[in-house]
Design a protein that fits this description.
It is built from 6 helices and 3 strands, in the order αβααββααα. With 121 residues, it is mainly alpha-helical.
Length: 121
């Protein structure tokens, strides 16, 4: 998964939070009024293009305008991030990931059982 800029993440968060298709002009207005970020239309369009390329958002054509919606849920995105972290940093080994989380300390049988229960869910 390609890394995202802070602004790309802010756009994706906005689309998740609004939970409805948005026009780019509405995004510009939101970032100006609520976040104090003055973006030019072309700058926003560049960020939207990057998110489209990463397949994280979709563009819907309506009345010669484009509406934007998330292509993945927030949970799906988090899952992809976690999988990417394990693949890139821990050579795809969940065991290595858990060992790193525990700081190399041994985990109790109860903790191991809890991890097993979580994995079964």
């Amino acid at each position: 998964m390609k890394k995202m800029s802070e602004m790309e993440m802010a756009i994706l968060d906005l689309l998740w939070d609004k939970n409805e298709p948005m026009l780019s002009r509405d995004m510009l207005q939101y970032f100006s009024e609520k976040e104090g970020k003055e973006l030019k239309k072309q700058t926003l369009n560049n960020f939207l293009s990057k998110l489209l390329d990463k397949r994280l958002i979709k563009r819907i054509s309506a009345d010669r305008r484009y509406l934007y919606v998330p292509a993945v849920s927030r949970e799906e995105y988090k899952k992809r991030l976690a999988e990417n972290l394990i693949d890139e940093i821990y050579e795809g080994s969940f065991k290595n990931f858990i060992c790193a989380l525990s700081g190399g300390a041994k985990i109790t049988r109860e903790e191991a059982n809890r991890i097993k229960d979580i994995l079964k869910e």
